[in-house]
From TrEMBL:
Gene3D superfamilies: Periplasmic binding protein-like II
Family annotation (NCBIfam families): modA (TIGR01256)
Signal peptide: 1-24
Family listed: Belongs to the bacterial solute-binding protein ModA family.
UniProt superkingdom: Bacteria
Keyword Endoplasmic reticulum: no
Keyword annotations from UniProtKB, A to Z: Metal-binding, Signal
Keyword Metal-binding among UniProt keywords: yes
Pfam families in the record: SBP_bac_11
The protein's name in its UniProt record: Molybdate ABC transporter substrate-binding protein
Taxon lineage: Bacteria, Bacillati, Actinomycetota, Actinomycetes, Micrococcales
CDD domains: PBP2_ModA_like_1
């Protein structure tokens, strides 16, 4: 009897264990984790803060999608693309560099303009050098930093120089606008020629001196999918988000102008 009793208990426990694991629960446990799709966006340095915010919003609106950004001067980004660097989207700070990418067959489709930007002078808080406008940047003894030729902000600076006849003698020429701003913030430069959006994004770290001559060089920002993209549909979706109502509001809040009509 004891042996039969023990065998009965064992059988009951076995049946109980089987009953507690339903086919549905076993299926749920075996389900693989959702696959994350990542797109890489090459974007001009001046877009850093805004695109970081925009990227987070895009990910929230598209579960399972991750946006990875690579920021630099647009001319550098185009060079990287031409050398085979993987990217799905290129957001340029000017039309010249985008057309360079198009001419090298690095772009798929037609680029779309999504914003404009203008130059502004960044100075230390309180403007200790009493800089009032563009012509002051040519004064002897003033340490001025600018972007290099070929970089969108450098091309814009050169355009203003030609239009005004005021030639600057910079302490250095940077490969992206973020490095110019950093020189001003650190005190290595008394003034830097950056974009109005950079000054706004820096907050209390710098003051901005607008100058009317900046209208000689309004930069238009185009965006496009790359020819080498492995996520063409997602690239188009990201571009649509940037050019759509939500993306345009984020850009406007950051100080960017509307794209030309």
């Amino acid at each position: 009897m004891p042996a039969l009793f023990a065998a009965g208990i064992a059988a009951a426990l076995l049946l109980s264990g089987c009953a507690g694991s339903s086919p549905a629960s076993r299926t749920q446990q075996a389900s693989p984790a959702p696959k994350i799709q990542t797109i890489t966006v090459f974007a001009a340095t001046s877009l850093t803060a805004t695109f970081n915010t925009l990227g987070t919003a895009f990910e929230a609106a598209n579960p399972g999608v991750r946006v990875q950004f690579d920021y630099n001067g647009t001319s550098t980004l185009v060079t990287q693309l031409s050398q085979g660097a993987p990217a799905d989207v290129l957001a340029s700070a000017d039309e010249k560099n985008m057309q360079n990418a198009v001419s090298q067959n690095l772009i798929s489709g037609t680029p779309v303009d999504f914003a404009t930007n203008v130059l502004e002078i960044a100075v230390a808080p309180g403007n200790p050098k009493n800089i009032t406008g563009w012509s002051d940047l040519a004064k002897s003894g003033l340490k001025v930093d600018v972007c290099a030729d070929g970089v969108p902000c450098g091309n814009a600076t050169e355009a203003v120089e030609k239009a005004t006849g005021v030639t600057l003698t910079p302490i250095s020429q940077e490969q992206n606008v973020g490095d110019v701003l950093a020189k001003v913030e650190s005190g290595d430069a008394d003034a830097g020629v950056v974009y109005v959006t950079d000054v706004k994004g820096a907050g209390s770290k710098v003051d901005g001196i607008p100058f009317p001559e900046a209208q000689h060089a309004i930069n238009t920002y185009p965006i496009a999918a790359t020819a080498s993209s492995k996520h063409a549909a997602l690239a188009k979706k990201f571009i649509a988000y940037v050019t759509g109502a939500k993306g345009q509001k984020l850009l406007a809040d950051a100080g960017f102008g509307a794209p030309p009509k």
